[in-house]
Amino acid sequence: MSLDHNRLFDHIVHDSLQRLLELNPLMGTQLGLHEYDAIVPRIDKKWVESLEKLMKETLDRLGEVDAEKLRGPRRIDYEVLVRGLRLELRELREWPLHKMMPYAAMMLGELFTPLLTRSYLPRNHVVYAIEARLSQLENVLLAPMELVEEPYQLWIDMALQVAQGAKPLLELVKAYGASAGRDWSREIEEAAAMLDKVIDETKRLRGEARPGFKPIGRELFVERLRARFIEESPEELRSHGYREAEKYRSMMLETARAMGASSIEEALERIKEKKPRDPDEAMRWHRETVEKVRRFVADKNIVELPVGEDVEVVETPPHLRPIIPFAAYVPPEIFHYSMIGQYYVTKPQNEEMLSHFNAYDVLNTTIHETYPGHHVQLCYARSAPTLLRKAYFNPPDFVEGWAHYTEWLMLEEGIDPSPEYRLKVLHDALWRAVRVYVDVELSTGMIGFQEAVEKLVKDAYLPQQGAVGEALRYTFTPAYQLSYNYGKTRIMELRERAKKLLGPRYSHALFHKMLLEEGNLPINVLSRIVIEKLSRYVSMQ
Q1: What is the rounded CA–CA span in Å between residue 85 and residue 63?
Q2: Degrees (nearest 5) of the Cα angle 96, 102, 103?
Q3: Distance between the two ends of the chain, CA-based, in angstroms?
Q4: Distances (CA, A) of 359 to 26, 198, 284, 293
Q5: What are phi and psi of 292, to 5 degrees?
Q6: Number of C-alpha atoms within 13 angstroms, CB side, residue 256?
Q7: Distance separating alpha carbons of residues 11 and 357, to the nearest angstrom
Q8: 242 Cβ contact list (under 8 Å, min separation 6)
Q9: Residue 323 pLDDT level (bands cut at 50, 70, 90)
Q10: To which H or E segment does residue 314 belong?
Q11: Which residue, 200, 212, 207, 198, is CA-closest to 106?
């Protein structure tokens, strides 16, 4: 009997994901598989070895599959999966972040936030899960500290800041317990003592840390690009970023003059004047803006909204406010019936922060995060044709590229015709273009951290503090930041091809549905699929 390669591939994927969830039950919680909620992995050397073994064995087993004999979406998923696993395995050996950056305190949020913020979970289940996780905190607080063998000062300082700001989360957990009739005072005291040990150990590590950070380097950077099917070289991407930045800077200057401003800087200050009076009004603006953009998307038939979806605007939980100064989106769990996304908004606490919550910022951020941005995209992903596209693949060039593309799309469609709003959209586009070349230059060692900060301040008009946080993010997520502009550019190009193919039959709703319904795949892979689907569609008319 001949080997059924389709069944073999399906079995490997199912078995490997099952083993991954056993190693990382926190991933199960995030996906909505709440049978994992009471389990806490011990993040130590044995855990890392097990993860490496799983990736090696999965690649070996995939080597037995003849990709040419795979049917439907399996052949595409096979190639994406193999490239991704090869990259992860290589980085685990050649650029092991777990040996250079303490992850301990960062995992507290993953442990408790999904349990505290999903209102549909039964209270008795949440209480049981929190008590179980509190009893196993050592596994994710103390054990990971033993992994750090080659610390770098920039990452140690970041880890220290996170650890020092983590105690409000423990107080939130304690308050939840009290509301459920549980006294967790002793458990929270023990957790706080463990956190103090983490802080002390992190301070000790700083004394022996190397300066700055360790760039991923050109070779691995290219490998990251190839894993996402990006064939351009770092040099080509860098040049593209500079060209894009110059284009948007020129458009910003033209728009600033239309506003009667003498410079881009003056115009950017002007848009801050339309700000909320107080934090409560800032929250109200976000709720009203979510409704506004949702109605606009529906009325203009920009994209078909999935049945049952909704967005809940909530105040950012206290422990997340240090790392979410403005707003963020938390998607519905993939394997749960609810399609309600959560739009976190951090209440501004002073006049300067209020100015960053001006009407134009609120509108563009809400478009990016909700309609027709991340929320719509990730609701579609729940119906993707394969398990990998629902639960495992997370290509930033499509995920972030789509959300950035929708900012420009809504400007084109006339959501707000004012020059002030146009300036805001252009500024965000400029910022994402600057990200491209700063990402390349910093990650490949062409520039250092401070120079990256200076470029973000000078070229993207970012405030100093924001630029520091931006550049810090780039150091441990190389090739991610360039994905916004890269993905947006590719989607715009794909849209033009779709218009030529379809002619008068083109509509945003049709094009966007064909793109989104395939789930999470690299944009260059999606482009091939969408063109094939559109060609079949045309031939059938």
Answers
A1: 12
A2: 90
A3: 42
A4: 37, 41, 11, 13
A5: -65, -50
A6: 18
A7: 49
A8: 437
A9: low
A10: strand 310-315
A11: 198
Round the average pLDDT of the chain to a whole number and report it. 95
- Give CA–CA dist 86/294, Å, rounded: 40
pTM check: above 0.90: yes
Instruction: Look up tokens 């996402």; give the residue.
Output: 228
Pairing mode, if any, of strands 327-330 and 310-315?
unpaired
Strands (E), 121-270: none
Peptide bond into 102 cis (omega under 30): no
Rounded-to-integer distance, Cα 346 and Cα 279, Å: 9
How far apart CA 119 and CA 332 sit, in angstroms, is: 12
Distances from the Cα of 268 to the Cαs of 305, 366, 426, in angstroms? 33, 19, 11
Residue 508 corresponds to which amino acid?
A: H
CB hemisphere CA count around 450 (13 angstroms) = 2
Contact yes or no for 317/113 (Cβ under 8 A): yes
32: left (phi over 0), alpha (psi -120 to 50) or beta: left
242 SS3 class: helix
**Tokens read off for 529:** 């699929």
**Structure confidence by residue, pLDDT tens digits, 490-526:** 999 999 999 999 999 999 999 999 999 999 999 999 9
Backbone angles phi, psi at 306, to 5 degrees: -60, 140
